[in-house]
Design brief:
The complex is a heterotrimer.
Chain A lengths: L1 H25 L33 H9 L2 E5 L2 E2 L3 E3 L6 E2 L1 H12 L7 E5 L5 H6 L5 E2 L7 H4 L2 E10 L1 E6 L15 E5 L3 H9 L4 E5 L2 H9 L5 E5 H10 L4 E4 L6 E8 L3 H16 L2 H8 L18
Parallel strand pairs in A: 1-5, 1-6, 9-10, 9-11
Antiparallel strand pairs in A: 2-3, 3-4, 6-13, 7-13, 8-11, 8-12
Helix pairs in contact in A: 3-9, 3-10
Chain B lengths: L2 H4 L1 H33 L4 H15 L3 H14 L6 H27 L2 H9 L4 H31 L15 H6 L4 H30 L4
Chain C lengths: L3 H4 L5 H31 L5 H4 L5 H36 L4 H16 L2 H11 L4 H27 L2 H9 L4 H31 L11 H9 L8 H32 L17
Classes of the chains: A alpha/beta, B mainly alpha, C mainly alpha.
Main location (chain C): membrane
Protein name (chain C): Amino acid ABC transporter membrane protein 2, PAAT family
Organism (chain C): Actinacidiphila paucisporea
């Protein structure tokens, strides 16, 4: 039969290709560092005072992290200037990452004792519920439904839903113009739920990451990307010739630090940390070095809600 | 609260998406698979080589990678189609390789004398294949094609993760609405069983009507 | 040499000329198609330096290799666990105890009927296991169930006489199985087992969908980065040959063993199978 005769020849032809690939990848013939990035470089980041004497035995999460010697923080890995991972170096950067670092510093963990773990929007409650992460900082909007599943410290930032469109798009200036248009957002996000509920004439499209949405926008697969304006500004800052953010924010999205539901001690400790860093100027410095690069000046942080 | 009755329309939409994916991709896979099987037994070497390459590449590509390449790669390439069409293309192309092999195996089960008799009557290759051999092969390939299409229905679950409306994808909104996750999955599993058991039933019927005891 | 020989006559001079013409047309169409694809690739800038530059960095190469290592890790554990699962449940289905037989049948049939991805999602989301465990357990339940069927079919395919002769010698069932049936069945089953392992290897890529950081996930991290100009097609060009190469090598070894076993006098009377219809 043909297949059994062709098999060896094909495999023999593939072997050197495979070998060459593996060699090329392991040969160490690559450059150091990371490929050049678009958009402005992140500014000088503040160093946070690590509270080494901090102790919180009442919190099972903190106790577990303390015994482990490391704090595991769930984040996003694909949001420029908010929570982004450099594929080459594996280093995380952005405003949410800084919030995680300042919160960790107040809990007694210096920056080199934090492990960041990328978690997709749809899996956040799962990751917090099963202890995959100690807490989660990644554009996590506080709402009543989620409060039934997880706890929230903060809010530490107030975003609002906005629209990102191509620069050659002139018909969309707000959510009312979305009739018959394809709108992309992350699966399970509150943004796509609002579009489905309030603007049923729009066609929602969901992916697990916003960068795929942005990609679809650039390739004319969708007409707009909707999510929190903070995220959209990050993308627009990356490619200002191709994309713009339009209209006023049409929702209030208070970002909180997500944590295991029952851990009240940790929640209140994180609330204290947020307030302290807002007061001592760390918060504004972190904003200016990250999201502030988009040109939007630092807003006043929202009041913390200790429920 | 009951997951099924509260969200019947969402659930129905998902089930319908899975059925659509299965039927459309199945039709595509059958058409392409039989054509490629014809290529693989044809007297023209270039066609045989093409058929072999098609089957070898698609059979050895992870379906998730194929979805990634088609749904996320093709748009970068200037090909812009609805996600549903992309999903049907990816599923259909992947399954066609398996249909092709089932059909080819079926062709091999037809006794040599049949082809020889057809040739001695002066039939050409196309006539021999389409009028004599394939109709007889059809009987013995019904069971393997049935299981391949059942596998296709199960594989269509991957499409849900690439923003195509189908059954597995319904877990996301249901989870967000706070329904019990175990029951959500029970009903999703039941949905898939409905589709696969229906397929199994149809092909069982076909086999009894057309099948021959060998 | 092929089944085709029964389907068409040995071509005469006229037919040869016609076949040559068909061959040229096919080749021309294929070349035109490939040419068009290459033109489109160049036209849409898929070979631009920006899109390929990331691959020249060590960090990116390390990311890809870590992903590949994670793929192989999940595959290795899943393969091992599937074999154990398969042996246990095949033994269960061949058991003389009705309860054991029925339970094993139920388990095997259920996991074969469920879409693998549904099980993986269930384990990941409802049972809240971490992505790697969810992937390995899902792969084990599905491939293990298929392997259980392969093993059972293999043991049943050993000619009756072998079993009867062994019993006639006064051997007990626990002796007949390991000393008489399994050694003969194993030869016939090996190709089918390897074919099923190819399926397991391909299905490790489902881990991508539950954020297990395997090979395809590494590729996604690179492809979705705006800084690299979203190199989806270059990423596919890099990772697809590796996946296909690994699977082809495994399939090829299955075919080779099958051919060897068919010729071997030791496997006489046992049908050597390479593939089940559900290996997809």
């Amino acid at each position: 039969m043909t297949s059994t005769q062709r098999g060896p020849r094909l495999a023999a032809a593939l072997l050197p290709v495979l070998a060459a690939l593996v060699l090329a990848l392991t040969g160490g013939c690559g450059r150091q560092g990371s490929p050049p990035a678009k958009g402005p470089r992140a500014g000088d980041l503040p160093a946070y005072h690590v509270d080494t004497a901090f102790s919180l035995p009442a919190s099972p999460t903190w106790t577990r992290a303390h015994r482990r010697g490391r704090l595991v923080v769930g984040v996003k890995d694909d949001q420029p200037y908010l929570g982004e991972r450099d594929p080459a170096t594996g280093a995380y950067s952005g405003f949410d990452i800084e919030i995680a670092r300042m919160a960790a510093a107040s809990l007694g963990f210096p920056a080199d004792r934090i492990t960041f773990k990328a978690i997709a929007s749809a899996n956040r409650e799962t990751a917090l519920g099963n202890g995959q992460v100690d807490f989660y900082v990644g554009t996590y909007t506080i709402n009543a439904l989620r409060k039934r599943q997880v706890g929230f410290a903060g809010p530490y930032y107030l975003a609002g839903q906005g629209l990102l469109v191509r620069t050659d798009e002139h018909d969309i200036n707000g959510p009312r113009d979305l009739k018959g248009k394809k709108v992309c957002s992350a699966a399970g996000s509150s943004s796509i739920q609002r579009i489905e509920a309030d603007y049923p004439d729009a066609t929602p499209v969901t992916y697990d990451t916003y960068s795929v949405c942005v990609d679809n926008l650039l390739t004319y697969q969708v007409d707009a990307v909707t999510t929190d304006d903070s995220i959209l500004l990050g993308y627009a800052a990356k490619a200002p010739k191709e994309m713009k953010v339009v209209g006023r924010p049409f929702s209030k999205e208070p970002y909180g630090i997500g944590l295991s539901k029952g851990d009240t001690a940790l929640r209140l400790a994180l609330d204290d940390a947020i307030v302290a860093h807002e007061r001592n100027g760390d918060w504004k410095r972190a904003y200016d070095a990250t999201l502030g690069l988009s040109g939007v000046p630092a807003p006043t942080p929202p009041p913390v809600d200790r429920y | 609260m009951n997951v099924l009755t509260d969200n019947f329309s969402l659930y129905g939409k998902g089930l319908w998406g899975t059925v659509q994916l299965t039927l459309l991709a199945g039709a595509l896979a059958l058409a392409v698979g039989v054509l490629i099987a014809g290529f693989r037994v044809s007297p023209v070497k270039a066609l045989r080589v093409f058929g072999t390459a098609w089957v070898t590449v698609l059979r050895n590509t992870p379906l998730t990678l194929l979805f990634f390449a088609v749904l996320l790669g093709l748009p970068r390439f200037g090909v812009v189609l609805p996600f549903m069409v992309f999903a049907v293309l990816a599923l259909g192309a992947y399954t066609s390789a398996f249909i092709c092999e089932a059909v080819r195996a079926g062709i091999n089960t037809v006794p040599l004398g049949q082809g020889e008799a057809a040739r001695s009557l002066g039939m050409t290759f196309t006539q021999t294949l389409s009028l004599v051999v394939l109709p007889q092969a059809a009987r013995s390939v019904i069971p393997p094609i049935g299981s391949t299409l059942i596998a296709l229905a199960k594989n269509s679950a991957i499409a849900g993760s690439f923003s195509v409306t189908e059954l597995l994808g319904t877990y996301k909104p249901l989870n967000e609405r706070g329904y019990g996750i175990v029951w959500t999955f029970v009903w999703i599993a039941v949905g898939y069983l409905i589709v696969t058991l229906t397929l199994a039933g149809v092909f069982g019927l076909l086999e009894r009507k057309l099948g021959v005891a060998r | 040499m092929t089944a085709g020989s029964a389907l068409y006559d040995i071509p005469g001079p006229k037919a040869l000329a016609r076949h040559r013409l068909y061959a040229w047309i096919t080749t021309a169409v294929l070349v035109a198609l490939v040419g068009f694809v290459v033109y489109k690739l160049v036209d849409t800038g898929q070979f631009s330096a920006v899109k390929w530059r990331p691959f020249t960095y060590q960090g990116i190469q390390r990311l890809l290799l870590t992903g590949l290592a994670n793929t192989l890790k999940a595959f290795g554990w899943a393969a091992l666990a599937s074999l154990v699962f398969g042996v246990v449940f095949a033994a269960g289905r061949l058991s003389d105890h009705r309860v054991v037989r029925w339970t094993s049948t139920l388990v095997v049939e259920f996991f074969r009927a469920m879409p693998l991805l549904v099980m993986i999602f269930f384990i990941f989301i409802a049972l809240k296991l971490d992505p790697m465990l969810a992937l390995i357990i899902g792969l084990t339940l599905y491939n293990g169930s298929v392997l259980a069927e392969v093993f059972r079919a293999g043991v049943n395919a050993v000619p009756r006489g072998q079993r009867e002769a062994a019993y006639a010698l006064g051997m007990r069932k626990t002796q007949v199985m390991p000393y008489v049936l399994v050694p003969q069945a194993a030869r016939a089953m090996l190709p089918a087992i390897i074919s099923q392992l190819v399926v397991a290897l391909k299905d490790t890529s489902l881990g991508y969908l539950i954020t297990y950081q395997e090979f395809l996930y590494s590729g996604k991290l690179i492809a979705t980065n705006l800084d690299y100009d979203l190199p989806f097609i270059p990423v596919v060009m890099v990772i697809a040959p590796v996946y296909i190469g690994m699977c082809v090598l495994l399939s090829w070894s299955a075919n080779r063993i099958a051919r060897h076993e068919r010729r071997s006098p030791k496997a006489k009377g046992v049908t050597v199978t390479t593939a089940l219809p559900e290996e997809i």
